[in-house]
Automatic annotation (TrEMBL):
It comes from the Bacteria. The lineage of its organism: Bacteria, Bacillati, Bacillota, Bacilli, Lactobacillales. GO terms for molecular function: aspartate-ammonia ligase activity. Its EC number is 6.3.1.1. The gene is asnA. NCBIfam families: asnA. Pfam families: AsnA. This is Aspartate--ammonia ligase. It catalyses: L-aspartate + NH4(+) + ATP = L-asparagine + AMP + diphosphate + H(+). Keywords: Amino-acid biosynthesis, Asparagine biosynthesis, ATP-binding, Cytoplasm, Ligase, Nucleotide-binding. Its main location: cytoplasm. PANTHER family: ASPARTATE--AMMONIA LIGASE. Pathway: Amino-acid biosynthesis; L-asparagine biosynthesis; L-asparagine from L-aspartate (ammonia route): step 1/1. SUPFAM superfamilies: Class II aaRS and biotin synthetases. Residues 23-320 form the Aminoacyl-transfer RNA synthetases class-II family profile domain.
Amino acid sequence: MHLIKPTAYDPHLTVRETQEAIRYIRETFQDEFGKEMNLSRLSAPMFVERATGLNDNLNGVETPVSFQMADLPDQTIEIVHSLAKWKRVALSRYGFGLHEGLYTNMNAIRKDEDLDNFHSIYVDQWDWEKVIAKSERTRETLENTVRTIFKVIKHMEDEVWYKYPTAVHHLPHDIHFVTTQELEDRWPEKTPKQREDAICQEFGCVFLEQIGGLMKSGKRHDGRAPDYDDWTLNGDILFWYEPLNCSLEISSMGVRVDEAALRRQLKEADAEDRLTLPYHRSLLAGELPYTIGGGIGQSRLCMLLLGKAHVGEVQASVWPQAMRDECAAAGIHLL
């Protein structure tokens, strides 16, 4: 458990005003985001069968919350970590065409999360996915999509400023693109998190590309599951967050693996046993569309736009009593 406590913190809004702002941001953003990206809203599962291979295994060490149900006693049901793979199946199943896509409200439990100002065991995000052509599996496609998402977030800043002028946190005017290898080359002595903080402080907002694979040092910048993002065509949208003097990740996204990238990354991750799972067999058989997709944190976006000091101010979750006590003493009200 790690907590950053800003000096003389002022939340600007009361708890009830914050709740109203949360509703406004969530409803407005998803409408504008869906329209700008040509995405339709779909309902999504909160849990999936383990045997399908649909659940996100994150860094490979986190264990999902699981259970058995009365009518499927021989199956293990898992609460999702994210819907990264489910969305690609849904695009195929529901007949989405080229450049059409979906978004959904994803609610997950990540019980192994290390708690801090940004991390909770409860995850709420807009998971989205869009069909692209195989020829569009390029860095240009990725970066153009990132620019569109950044534009919607910037427009939301204006919307929030109009309704809550004393509370809005002002964002940089542009987004900068950089790779994990460029950061390692520039700051070999720093940790990955320190590099993220340094580049975000310099530019205000960055899209950090190529996460998951090995860098020249033989190390990974960060972990990524090997079976949805293509590690050469993915990244995170990061903002420099002055209230806490550190970087804040808003979105993880990428061009999804094709057949070759799936085989290559499963081999590198020593996870080729997954090739027997239904999802992976469908992908290798060419039954799933080529896609780009990701997730945008709902609570984190609210936190960013409202200048909040803790994600618990914009979502209801479970926190250790020691963290609750520290937050209360610092003027941070956890829901």
